Amino acid sequence: MPRRAPTLVALAALAAGVATAPPAAAAGPDPGKQPVAIGTGGAVATVDPDATRIGLEVLAAGGNAADAAVAAAAALGVSEPYSAGVGGGGFFVYHDAATGTVSSIDGRETAPQAMGPDAFLDEAGAPLPFQEAVQSGLSVGVPGTPLTWERALAEFGTRSLAEVLEGPTRLAEDGFVVDETFRQQTAENEEKFRRFDASAQLWLPGGALPEVGSVFRNPDLVRTYEVLAAEGAGAFATGQLADDVVRTAQDPPEAPGAAAVRGGLLAAADLAAYDAPLREPTRIDYRGLEVYGMAPPSSGGSTVGEALNVLERFPLGSLSDVDALHVYLEASAVAFADRNAYVGDPATTEVPLAELLSDGFAAERACAVDPARAAARPVPAGTPDGAYDPCPAPVGATVGGGSEGPSTTHLTVADAEGNIASYTLTIEQTGGSGITVPGRGFILNNELTDFTFAAADPAQPEPNLPGPGKRPRSSMAPTIVLDDGAPVLALGSPGGATIITTVLQTLVGRLDRNADLGEAIAAPRASSRNGATTDAEPAFLEAYGADLTARGHAFAEVAEIGAATGVEFLPGGLLLAAAEPQRRGGGSAGVVRDVLVEGGAG
C-alpha cells in the first residue's frame, strides 16, 4: 500500500517538539475562518466559525465526537440556516474507537403516505416546472434531523440532547455576525422568501437584506431548541411543534399579495411514523485502506465506492496530472451511469449494492475507461448481475440523474480517543422550500424534489420516482477511511450530485496524488456526472482544460464545486482539521489544543 505522506507542516510541528504542548485552559483560540489547524484533544471542521467553536467547546468539556457533531450541526442550524436545520435531514456516519465499528444513521426525509409516482406531474401529465415544485408544500418531506441528533447521542454520545443544545441555543439568542456569504445567499433567495410571510419577516429584517457586520438573532429558533431540549425529537412527531410543521406544509402561508403556491401532502401520521434507522455502511478496500460510506437511499457510498474500485485498476500515483484527471473523470461517469440506473430507496427498490461494489463488476466497468480518450456521453449503465466478462459490450440502460440542489453542509469531527463523526445534513436547495414555519425560526426542506419527476424512458425502470413513505435518492457522501481498523481520515461535502465527485477527487488527491488533505480540499475541481458536459471551476480549466478537451472532454464552467471539510489523523497523536480556504467564503477548521499556536511553531 502506498503510504500517505504526512502533512509537511505537521512534520515541522513535530520537529519543533510542540506535540507535547501543555493543555489549554479552554477550547483554544477561536478558529475563525482558518482552513487548516493541527493539534490534539479533538478536531472540528465546518463551514462556519461559530459551529466549529461550539463543537470544540463540547470536546474540551469532555464530550466525544458524536456529542460535538450534534452540537456543531445545531449551531449550523443557526448560522447556516439556508443549508441545514431541524426542518431537513441528512446522513451520519460514525467510527466507534472502542469497538472498532463504523455505523451510520439514515436521517433522510420521507415522502408522505399520500404521495404517488405522479405527484410532480401537472394535470396534463407533464413534469411541474422545477422552481414551482420547490416553492411549494409539495416538496416538503418529513424532517429527519431532530431524530438523527437524538439517535446519534443515544447510540454513540455521552451527553443528552438538552446538554448539547445549550451552546447552539445561546448562539441563536445572542446572534451571529452576518458575513458576505450569508448576505449573498439571502439576496439569492430574496424573491422566494418574499412569497412567504414568516420567511420575509425573519430573513429580511425590516424588509431589507441583512447588512454585513450586523448581528442576526433568531429568538423563534431559541424557543424551538428549548422545546427540543425539554421534549426531545418526539416534539417533531406529535404535539404543537409537529402540528405547526404539518399545517405550514399543507397550506404554506403566502405573504399578502403573493401568488398562491401548491399545498403539500404531509400529514400528522407521517411525522408520527418517521424513523431514522441505523444502516450498515458501505465498505470497499482501496489500495489497502478501508473506505466506509453511506448506503442507499444515499448513492454516495455506492458511487464513490464503485468509482474507487474502477480507479484501483489504474496507477494513479505514477500518472501525469492530466492522465490521472482524465481517468478520474471517466470513472466518475461510469459510476454515475450505474448510480442513475440502480440506486433508490432500498425499501421500495431492489438495489444491487453488493454487486455495484464488487471487484468483478469494477473490473468489467473499467473496460469502459479508455486511458487516452473520453467516452461518448452518456455512458450506458453496466449490468451488476454477478456474471462478469473481461470486457463485454455495454448493454445496460441509460437513465437520467434527476435534479439536486447545490446546497447542504458537511461537518467532520474527531476526538482524542479516535471516534469520528462524518455528518452531511441539508434542507436541499439553498433556502430550502423558502417556507419558514411561523414562530419556529426554521425553513422547511424541499427534499422531495430530489425524486425523479417522471421516467426519462417509460420502458426502463426508474428507481427514484416518488412513492408513499419513500426516501428520495441522495448524493450525500459522508466518508470515513481506516487503515486496518485504525482511523486515517474522514471527509464530506455539500453540493448536490457534485458531492460524490468532490469526495472522490479529494480522496484521489490525498491517497493517490500525495497531496496534503488541505491541498486536496483546495485543489481546483471538475465534476463528471455522465452528462453531455463536465462542470469545471475556472482554475481547473485554466490548468487542464485544453489538454482534457483534446482528449474529448466537453466542459461547462461553473464558479465553484462543493465545500469540503475533513479531519486526518497524523503521526505523534496529532489531528489535522481542514476546510475550504475560499469556496463558500471559506470554512473553519479547529482543534482543541492548537500545537502550532501554543507551541510557537510555524
UniProtKB/TrEMBL annotation:
Pathway: Sulfur metabolism; glutathione metabolism. GO terms for molecular function: glutathione hydrolase activity; leukotriene C4 gamma-glutamyl transferase activity. Cleaved by autocatalysis into a large and a small subunit. It catalyses: an S-substituted glutathione + H2O = an S-substituted L-cysteinylglycine + L-glutamate; an N-terminal (5-L-glutamyl)-[peptide] + an alpha-amino acid = 5-L-glutamyl amino acid + an N-terminal L-alpha-aminoacyl-[peptide]; glutathione + H2O = L-cysteinylglycine + L-glutamate. Residues 1-26 form the signal peptide. Pfam families: G_glu_transpept. L-glutamate binds at residues 108, 450, 474-475, 496. Gene3D superfamilies: 1.10.246.130, 3.60.20.40. One of its GO terms (biological process) is glutathione catabolic process. Keywords: Acyltransferase, Glutathione biosynthesis, Hydrolase, Signal, Transferase, Zymogen. The active site is at 408 (nucleophile). Its EC number is 2.3.2.2, 3.4.19.13. The keyword Signal applies. Transmembrane segments: none annotated. NCBIfam families: g_glut_trans. Belongs to the gamma-glutamyltransferase family. This enzyme consists of two polypeptide chains, which are synthesized in precursor form from a single polypeptide. This is Glutathione hydrolase proenzyme. It comes from Geodermatophilus sabuli.
